[in-house]
Every structure is written in C-alpha cells, then in structure tokens.
Specification:
By secondary structure, this protein is of the alpha/beta class. The protein is built from eleven helices and twelve strands. It starts with a helix and ends with a strand.
Length: 348
C-alpha cells in the first residue's frame, strides 16, 4: 500500500473513532437522564455567588491578585475599630494597594449609605454590619452589575443600661416590648419601680439599627424611644439617666466605665452575658475593664449576633478586584487575628 493510501486510511479511522466516542456520550447522556451541558463547564470561581477564593494565605504579603492604585471605600461605623487596626497593616504590607475611607456628602455614615455609595459609583467597595437588602440588589442589577456580600467577622450586640440599675438581665421578648412601647417601667421586667427611657439612633443611621429593627424588634419603634445622633451621645445620656437603655456593637459597650451591659436570654432564666464572667465592677475601671464574651458570640450561645460583610461590586473591573482583595486580606490568618484583637470574633 502506498504512503498516500496509508494516510487516507488513518484519517478515516480517526474520524470513525471520534464519531463512535461522540455517539456514545450522546447515548449515555440521553439514556442515563444526566444532563451534560458541554457549553457550561466552569470552575467554582466563575460562579457569581461564590466567595473570593483565598489560597490558604496566612498573611497580607501572600494574597494574590491585588490591584495597584488608590481605592475609596466607606460604610459601617461598627467597622471603625477594624479600619483602625487592619487597614493600616494592609497598607504597610501592600503599599501598592492604597485605601481611603470616604464619608457620604449628605448622609450619615453607615452600612446603608455605604451601599448606596457603592451602587452610585462613589466608592470601590463597602463595609456593612448587616446583610444586603433585596431592594439594594435590585437597584444594582438595574445599573448593570451584581452585589456580593462576603462575611469576614462576627459581632455581638450588647444592651447597655445605667450602672445603678438593678436587674439580672432581659429576654429578647422583654427587649422587644421595651422598644415597641408595650412596657414602660422597669418593674414590669424584674427591675425597680423606675420609668424606662429607651435610646436609639434613627433607622437610617446605620446597619446596627436596621439589624435591631428587622431581626430583634420585628416592628416599628414605639413613640417612647428617644433618638440620639450617635453611640457616643447615647452612652453619655445613659450614664446620667437612671432608667435609660441602649444597644450597640459589643466592643463599643462592654469595656465602658460609665455604663454596664446586661445579660440577655432567649427565654427566662437563660441569660448569657456579653462580657466574660465574673463581671468587673465599674469602680475598678479603667484600671480593669470587662472583656468580651467572644466564645458565646462565636458559638451562638449569646442570642444577639450578626456577621460583618465586605460588599463587592461585581462589574468585572478594578472595583471588583479591589473588593475581592480586601475580603481576602481579612480572611487570611493575619487578618482574622487582627479582627479578634479589635473585639470581634473571627469567622474562620
């Protein structure tokens, strides 16, 4: 047989082999009931809902795919201790990745305003102390991109009262009754005969209030609630108001010297303190301060906890790369250790 004929035979044999293999795959897919979509063979990273991949990074220097440039970000005031400790360490290790926190021009700084700024294109990514809302996701989709929330830490919400108030704790139901106006005196919830003065920030002021209203109160505030501009003002008012009560992120409340935090329970007799026992008397503060009950926050034994999120714009551009990198920094061993040092609970 000539070389030309041998070549033709080989080509024909290859064609027949490929046809047999293709036909077999088609028969298997249809007979077995397995839907094989050959056009959609992807890696996990292509899934829009999957978190950014952290390749077992232990420190900021080992994080991959970090963009160069200055990136504006904004959002939750609860994140302030993390920004102070973590962001400076990121920039020291990765000077090519520069960060600048931006306040809203006409809004109160917080989770909601940060997400609005992200959707409007003012910042590259945002920090939030509550999950994304359906309307925020829809608004982003109208702009042609998606939003992704990456949990990076756990926070407990602490209930603060005047240091002289004598009460063992509150249940979630009692807390709900106080802030809805159904209970007006501390003697109705196991305390002294003293009018209750509930303090809160406005719902529009931040993710902490939004979380409290949606997940704890599950209704609107009662007319008895007195609104304050921020936690600093609330704690000052609380210190001089015998019947006052307030709620905030545990790291902002538990170590304070002028107020005390209350144990909270899902039911009567199930009180779990947001501080490590034994309680340090405020007379010993500031030499000795109460420490956070991080174990109870992490296990969920303490009944009021939430995740802290990095909110990422999924637009395939540098904003998305910056948000992914920031979340990856926080999810490294170094990032989680720094988060824990600021009073929050590591998520991994």
């Amino acid at each position: 047989m000539s070389q030309k004929n041998e070549t033709a035979v080989l080509v024909l044999a290859l064609f027949i082999t490929l046809a047999v293999i293709g036909g077999s795959l088609w028969w298997f897919a249809n007979r077995s009931g397995i839907d094989i979509d050959f056009s959609r063979i992807t890696t996990p990273s292509e899934d829009d809902n999957s978190p950014p991949i952290v390749s077992d990074s232990t420190n900021f220097a080992s994080v991959q795919n970090v963009p160069n440039g200055l990136f504006n970000y904004g959002g939750s005031t609860t994140w302030a201790p993390i920004r102070l400790a973590v962001d400076s360490a990121i920039q020291a290790a990765r000077p090519e990745f520069r960060l600048r926190y931006v306040n809203p021009t006409s809004d109160t700084p917080g989770s909601a305003s940060g997400i609005r700024m992200l959707i409007d294109g003012t910042i590259a990514f945002s920090q939030s102390s509550r999950p994304l809302l359906d309307q925020e996701i829809a608004r982003a989709q109208q702009r042609g991109f998606g939003l992704q929330q990456i949990p990076v830490a756990i926070d407990g919400l602490a209930i603060a009262v005047n240091p002289n108030l004598d009460i063992p704790g509150l249940t979630i139901e009692q807390l709900r009754a106080i802030y809805s106006g159904k209970v007006a005196n501390w003697n109705q919830v196991g305390g002294p005969n003293l009018p209750i003065v509930p303090f809160s920030r406005q719902v529009s002021d931040g993710g902490t209030v939004e979380f409290f209203v949606q997940d704890i109160l599950a209704q609107s505030f009662g007319s008895n609630v007195e609104f304050v501009p921020d936690t600093t003002q609330a704690l000052r008012r609380l210190a001089v108001t015998p019947g006052g009560i307030y709620y905030a992120s545990a790291p902002e409340v538990v170590p304070q010297c002028t107020i005390k935090s209350l144990p909270i329970g899902r039911g009567s007799g199930e009180f779990i303190p947001p501080y490590q026992e034994p309680f340090v008397p405020l007379s010993q503060c500031p030499k000795s301060r109460n420490s956070l009950n991080l174990e109870a926050f992490q296990t969920g034994q303490y009944p009021i906890t939430r995740n802290l999120f990095v909110i990422i714009k999924q637009n395939g551009q540098s904003d998305e790369q910056a948000g992914d990198a920031y979340a990856n920094f926080l999810l490294t061993t170094q990032g989680q250790e720094l988060i824990e040092q600021t009073g929050f609970v590591r998520i991994r």
